[in-house]
Design goal:
Length: 122
């Protein structure tokens, strides 16, 4: 799943959940579950492969971004369990942070920029 598609989906979903405007909650649960499954598969792919020499920081950043997005989706599940609307805000914040990291990685790769250990993790 493209990270912007995920972010857009969750941004539209959050107010609908907050206002109890979702009729088919099972469909939402299925979509969120598939999203987490997809993020986990991508993460496992990065985890299983060694990064090319010099790209270790990019790999680490990508893995961090995937973890943040997974945790963000998890907050949506937490909201479905306990109804605490703060969960939606936290979930969106986590996904947005993951999206920002992925956007930075994409920009760096497209512009063939050097990433060094000065790039920060979380």
């Amino acid at each position: 799943m493209d990270n912007n598609i995920l972010l857009d989906f969750l941004r539209k979903l959050a107010p609908k959940l907050r206002n109890d405007e979702i009729e088919d909650i099972d469909n939402i649960v299925e979509t969120l579950t598939m999203t987490q499954d997809h993020l986990a598969v991508i993460y496992q792919g990065y985890e299983a492969e060694e990064a090319p020499e010099g790209a270790e920081m990019l790999r680490d950043l990508m893995m961090e971004a995937l973890q943040l997005m997974f945790a963000g989706v998890d907050e949506f599940f937490n909201f479905l369990e306990d109804g605490q609307t703060e969960r939606l805000d936290e979930g969106l914040a986590l996904v947005e942070e993951g999206n920002d990291i992925m956007t930075s990685i994409k920009h760096a790769v497209e512009n063939n920029q050097d990433w060094t250990s000065s790039a920060s993790l979380g």
